[in-house]
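Form 7-S
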Amino acid sequence: QVQLVESGGGSVQAGGSLRLSCAASGRTFSSSAMAWFRQAPGKEREFVAAISWSGGALYADSVKGRFTISRDNAKNTVYLQMNSLEPEDTAVYYCAARPGRKTVVVGTYDSWGQGTQVTVSS
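Output:
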């Protein structure tokens, strides 16, 4: 498994930006697919974005064009740049890792961070 620690959450007004970071240690980071999920109160955890070891990315339709996932294998860190934030983006954001290919399915990831709160006010 990989140990993951998220940072960068906070409160912003609609239209603002935040950048989340996830620092990894443990299993070889560069060979792991990384992803961001989020969970709003009363809702199930949902896929936001994923990135393969080589940098190929996937996005949920709800964030496409506004969020960008990236990784720095030298720093064992994955990022989520969030622009044009909307109140509907309010949630706890989780970083996740898995060996092999990136997927959009929560249950396929074997390592999770503790989560970081993002609150967007209108």
